[in-house]
């Protein structure tokens, strides 16, 4: 039997070569570039427009206060012209304390004429009361 050799055959040597630069420079053709003047346009500085917001009117509250002690079990009513009042039937006033009755509305336009009644039957003595929209009237009716 033939004996195998443990020597591997040598690879052939590779020779590295460096690329040589050519002696003649390559001519680059330059083309003329035409310069164009840029026109500047006047720009207006516009202020940011505020969004047109409509002012929401705050409803004006008109209040009528009647100061009198009407006794236990009795109530005060209000009659008048405008803001849901009528001269035929009264509107119950709210009892704020033992001697104070209050009526309020945000629907009064202009001036309001009114009169206070005890239990919506007995008219207060004296002249009718007046209050302008958004104002407060304090009366002391007597029966």
Please name the defining characteristics of this protein:
143 residues, five-stranded antiparallel β-sheet, 9 strands, 29% strand, single chain, Immunoglobulin-like, mainly beta
Task: Report on this structure.
The chain is mainly β and 143 residues long. It has a domain at 62-139: Immunoglobulins (Immunoglobulin-like, Sandwich), CATH 2.60.40. The protein has no helices and 9 strands. Strands 2, 3, 6, 7 and 8 form a 5-stranded antiparallel beta sheet that branches. A hairpin with a 2-residue loop joins β4 and β5.
How would you briefly describe this protein structure?
With 143 residues, the protein is mainly β. It has strands at residues 62-67, 76-81, 91-92, 94-97, 100-105, 111-118, 122-123, 129-132, 136-139.
Topology of helices and strands:
Elements: E1 62-67, E2 76-81, E3 91-92, E4 94-97, E5 100-105, E6 111-118, E7 122-123, E8 129-132, E9 136-139
Parallel strand pairs: 1-9
Antiparallel strand pairs: 1-5, 2-3, 2-6, 4-5, 6-7, 6-8
What is the typical, i.e. mean, pLDDT?
81
Order of helices and strands: EEEEEEEEE
The tally of strands reads: 9
* Biggest pleated-sheet summary: 5 strands, antiparallel
Helix content: under 10%
What's the helix count?
0
CATH domain topology of the domain at 62-139: Immunoglobulin-like
Give the N-to-C terminal Cα separation: 149 Å
What is the CATH homology-level superfamily of the domain at 62-139?
Immunoglobulins
Shape: rod-shaped
Helix-strand category = mainly beta
* CATH class designation of the domain at 62-139: Mainly Beta
> Uncertain regions: pLDDT < 50 for 5+ in a row?
none
CATH architectural designation of the domain at 62-139: Sandwich
The radius of gyration is 51 Å
Report the β-strand fraction as a percent range.
Answer: 25-35%
